[in-house]
Amino acid sequence: MKKKKVNLRDLKPNSEVQHTHNDGHNHGNGSAFKTYVPAIISFTMLIIGIGLDYFDVSFFKDWIRIAWYGIAYLPVGFPVVKEGWISIKKGDVFTEFFLMSIATIGAFVIGEYPEGVAVMLFYAVGELFQSAAVNRAKGNIKALLDVRPKEANVFREGDYKSVSPEVVNIGEKIQIRVGEKIPLDGILLSEKASLNTAALTGESKPDSIQKEAKVYAGSINLESVIEVEVTNKFEDSSIARILDLVQNATARKSKTELFIRQFARIYTPIVVFLAIGVTFIPYFFVDDYVFRDWLYRALIFLVISCPCALVISIPLGYFGGLGAASKNGILFKGASFLDAMTKINTLVMDKTGTVTKGVFKIKEVKAIGWNETEFMQYLMAMEEQSTHPIAKAILEYKAEGEDFEAQDVSEVAGKGLKGIVNGKTVLVGNKALMTANNINVPTETESIVESIVLVAIDNQFAGFVVIADELKEDAKKTITNLHKVGIKNIMMLSGDKDSITQQVAKELNIENAKGGLLPEDKLNEVEILKKNPVNKVAFIGDGINDAPVLAASNVGIAMGGLGSDVAIETADVIIQTDQPSKVVRAIKISRSTRKIVWQNIILAFGVKVIVLILGAGGLATMWEAVFADVGVALLAILNAVRLQRMSWD
C-alpha cells in the first residue's frame, strides 16, 4: 500500500501551475505578458478592422480586408488549429480544437471574417481565464513547494555545516535559526520553541512546544535558535508526504468528472454529424434553400456544441475543493473522496488520539495518612524506573523538595513494581498487587473507571493516583456540529476499557460506544454497519490498529499529526491538525464542491440546449454561439473559483 515517494528535486513550481486541457495550451511558462500578447494583437486588429468596416473605408476591401482579418486570426487561431491537427494524427478527431478550427475557418469561407476572428479570440481568452483560475486553485500547492527547505545546518566534525537536507541522516543534530524553515522531521533538543506550522496544518496561530516534542519539516522557527535531532529522512518527511498526497489527488477523478469526459467524447461527434445534417438535409425539404445560410447555421451549431464549459469547469471545481481543503489543513487523496464524503451518514470513531489527546495526565491524587508531596515523592522515585506512559504522566508532577531515590526495584509481571525508598518498602501497581501482599484497598477505588495507580508504603495503603486521557478541546463541539450537518449515527469503538470508553462517550453525548475491542473486532463492527446499503460509513482513527478499519470503510479519515504512518497511508482523508472538528469542515467543503459542480453542469447544459435550438432555427448568430460556449465556460470557471473564497466555520 506504500506509495512511490516524491523526489522533491523533480518538482518545479512551474510544473505545478501549468494546465493542459486535452493536450492543449500550456499557459504556465514564460511571463504573464508574453502569454497575453497573441490575444492583445488579435483583439487590436479585430477592433480596427470592425471600425474600418463600420466607416466603409474605401481601401479596406477585397484581398486587403481578407489579409487583415487573416493576420488577426493567426495569433490566436494557429495554436488551436495546430493542436487540432496533432490530435487528429493521434486518432482523436472530435476535440474542441477541431470544432473551433472548422467553425472559424468555415466562417472565413463564407465571408464572415470578423466573426471567425471573434470566435477564436474569445475561445483563446477563455483558455487564458481558465489557466488563471487553475493557477489560483493550485496556489496552495505552489505555497507548499515554496516551503520546501533548501538547506540544513547539520552538526558534523565539531561544527555546524550547511548541506542539502537530502544528505542528512537519522540521528544527526541540526540547528535552525530564527526565521528559518525546519528542514527535516525530528525531536526538539532545545528547552522550548515557537513554530509557525501554517504550511502543514492550515493554522496560522504559532505553536509553542517543549523539549522532546516532535517537530515537522516545513515549520518556521519564530523565536530563538533551536536544535533538533532528525528522526526521518528527507523523502519521508511530513512536507514530502503532504506534497505526495496533494499532487496525487488530482489523478484520482470523481465519478462525475469521469462521466463528463466520457460523455463529451460521445456527444461531440454526434453534434458534428448533426451539423453536417443541418447543412445538407434542408436541401431536400426547403424550397428556397441557400447553401451559405445553412452552412452558417451549422457553424453556429458547431461552436455551441463545444463541451468546454463542462470539460474545464468540472475538474476545476473539484480541484478548487481539494485546494480549499488543503488550505484548511485537510488533505483529500482524490476528487473521488470529495464525492464520497458528501454521501456519508454514519461516522465511526476511535477514542484515544482521535477525540482524546492520547496523552495521560494526573486527574486526582489521594494520599491517605501522608502529606501529598511526600507521598508523590515516594511514588515518583519508583516510577522513574519505568518506561510506561502512566509512569511518564506521574513524573510530570511538580513536587517540592529533594528527589527520593529508589533501590532494589523489581517488576511484578502484570501487577506493578516493588522496591525500597528511604528504607521503606514501596508497592506501586494495581489491585492484584495489593491483594497479593495482603494490603487492604478502600472500596472507593472500585468505582473509579479511569486508570488508577495504587500505592502501599511499609505494608500500609498510602493512597492512589487517578490517571486519565484528556478530551481534545474541540471534541464536544465536533459531535454537536456533526448532528447539525445531518450525521445522526455516530459510534465510538475503542481498544481501551469499556468503562472508560462509555464514560468518554457519555461526556461527548455519543449513544453508541463499545470498548475493549481488538482491531478485528472494530473491523467486524464496521462490516456489520456496511451490510445495510443505506449506511455510508466514515471511520476516523490514528493508530496502526485502525488501518484495517480505515481501509474497509467508505471513507477512511486519519489524524495526520499524531497518527501512525500506516494509518495515514491507508486513509482517504488526512486531518493535518489532529482536530476532530475538521471532519465537519471536510464534510462542508465536500458538499460545497459538489453543489458548485452541479450548478456548472446545469448551467452549461441549459444554455447550450437553448442556443442549439435557436441556432438550428436560424435565430442565433455567431455572437450567441460565442456566449453559449466561451461565455458559459467563463461563468462556470468564476463559479468554481468561489470555493477559494468560501468560509466553512
TrEMBL record:
GO terms for cellular component: plasma membrane. Keywords: ATP-binding, Cell membrane, Membrane, Metal-binding, Nucleotide-binding, Translocase, Transmembrane, Transmembrane helix. The chain crosses the membrane at residues 36-57, 63-81, 93-111, 117-134, 266-286, 298-319, 596-616, 622-641. It is found in: Cell membrane; Membrane. Its EC number is 7.2.2.12. It catalyses: Zn(2+)(in) + ATP + H2O = Zn(2+)(out) + ADP + phosphate + H(+). It comes from the Bacteria. Its main location: membrane. One of its GO terms (molecular function) is P-type zinc transporter activity. Residues 148-247 form the P-type ATPase A domain. Belongs to the cation transport ATPase (P-type) (TC 3.A.3) family. Type IB subfamily. This is P-type Zn(2+) transporter. It comes from Winogradskyella sediminis.
